[in-house]
Amino acid sequence: MAVHDDARRRWEAQVAQARLRDCDFETVSGAPTPLLATPDDLPPGWPEQVGYPGEYPFTRGPYPTMYRGRLWTMRQFAGFGSAAATNGRFRLLLQQGQTGLSTAFDMPTLMGYDADHELAHGEVGKCGVAISSLQDMERLFADIPLDEVSTSMTINGPAPVIWAMLIAAAEKRGISRRRLKGTTQNDILKEYIAQKEYLFPPRASLRLVTDTVEFAARELPGWHPISISGYHIREAGSTAAQELAFTLADGFAYVEAAIARGLDVDAFAPQLSFFFNAHSDFFEEIAKLRAARRLFARRMRERYGARKPESWRLKTHCQTAGCSLTAQQPLNNIVRTAIQALAGVLGGTQSLHTNSMDETLALPSERAVIVALRTQQIIAHETGVANVVDPLGGSWYVESLTNRMEEEALALITQIEELGGVVAAIEQGFQMREIGRAAMRYQRDLEAGRKVMVGVNRFVEPAEDVPIPLLEIGEEVEQEQVQRLVALRRTRDAAAVARSLARLRQDAANETNVMPALIEAVSSYATLGEIVAALREVYGDYQEPAIF
Amino acid sequence: MSSARPPRPVRILLAKVGLDGHDRGLRIIAGACRDAGFEVIYGGLRQTPRRVVEIALQEDVDAIGVSILSAAHMTVFPEILRLLQEEGLHPRVLLTGGGIIPEKDAIQLTELGVGRLFGPGAPLAEIVQYITDEVGRRRLAGE
Q1: Cβ B27–A439 below 8 Å, yes or no?
Q2: Which helix (H) or strand (E) holds B64?
Q3: Residue in A111, A196, A326 nearest the CB of B23
Q4: If you placed Cys at A116, which of A12, A412, A482, B65 could pair as Cys (CB 3.0 to 4.6 Å)?
């Protein structure tokens, strides 16, 4: 070690006299970065803690061969206008080499309202596809092989209803629910924390999620009933460590709820999946994903007593950071997205969405979506990074950052536990206050020039005309959707609808799993709005505390 | 206006209209307005245009800031403006806001009588200054 120590002393002496750039040298999350990482930054026995890919504690990846076995799923989130229009975009993406589907719903659907509800006015089909009934779901996936292509649906409050529609639509086409592959986001806890698309109070919502976890374990082995999401927490302004902590805490809350329901942890845990942000701070993001896998594996085995390796294995989707994109000089967004996507891949993600360059201006145009997909294809097929598993493993910096992310997240998780758990912490506004503070700090740093966004506060150019064509959704989408809904209500069997809704109310009020009643209700063509209204009669709604 | 009178702080109602719940921008603006000495009435999520105008009336605000990221701006802003006119609050009460609003829509809305609309990356200081100036101007015009 003497040679090493001498070298270190020489280096320190040089550093002490060196002039450094005028910069805070922090990560995008505001954490200090060392000038240099060395073996001294790692605890003894660190290689054992890191382990091998595909093996506990999965720091280096959930699978032994990672992308040599199978590339990540390239899954672009899409949805706008009518079900038929989105079906067209899905087919385009599959034709262009995309390997999974991901559905964006419009605001009325996300909030459980039919297109003809007064609160839906002006929002139908605008930032996603409008789905008001099973009829729309049938059109959305027309001619798409639901047993071959995996489908992900970004929906939370009404997730059990939308999932019931997908199951019913598939079975009407003769595809058994046991063969369905995909994911419903269905992570209601992060809605209270970040995205705010909740329908009912937290405890009732958690019960509905547990119903879906139980139903998937019993009847849909290929389905991920929840995608436990840090993405929205990060977009709301959290730091990387907060994203990691709040997301895993939410995940553990779902695990505990399912165990309290009487389920064996190994019966449902392999079907859990995660969704993280791939943000701009390259190494911090990679460390976050590595730490997430290790932290999850340890808890699942040590605290919840899971015995199957599949229950310890954290699988995740990643999406590049929407909040990092700029309206100024929008072509720069292609570059940001590419670097973030690379961080997701080097962090070992299982699927990836790359944002389009025009998303701060409007919903992405076809051209912009294809460029985003090509970005993933270039990473996969040209850069060589998919040839080797966890190439940054063993980097003193990445390993020490992984350790630090894990420690910071654990401290926050402990704080939540001391407040009485995730739901109690939400009711006290804890996570929202922490995120709000981080978001404000970042904004102030940006405005003071301590943090740089190219084209926004440095290297600014005079405002230019937007050089890319934007997608526009016409008002006719709403009119047509409303007309279809009116026609549906006229032609369906009204008595069957009433019966199925009565059964749903009853099951929701009792401790019966609501999924069978939901499948019956959607199959009678009860609409999303009618079903959610029936559930709201039982559960009531929720007002959040005002925090800013 | 006599210069001896201390200036009244700006009273602003901040709200999201429509179904979208992405409130990072609104909360940041609320914090910046508070720090600038404004009196902030935080209307929060999922307000209707009618409810916004009712609160504006009850709270006697100088300005309304609406955040919209869900592309419903061409429905929401004209509707709030119409209701403000109905209540005789336009142009005394400034209607401003921000979100994902394409330039050509923003121009059209400004022509209707909506104030400036701020997009992603707009500096907080600029937003606060705009509201301060515009409210000052409208107060003067009203006296």
Answers
A1: yes
A2: strand B63-68
A3: A196
A4: A482
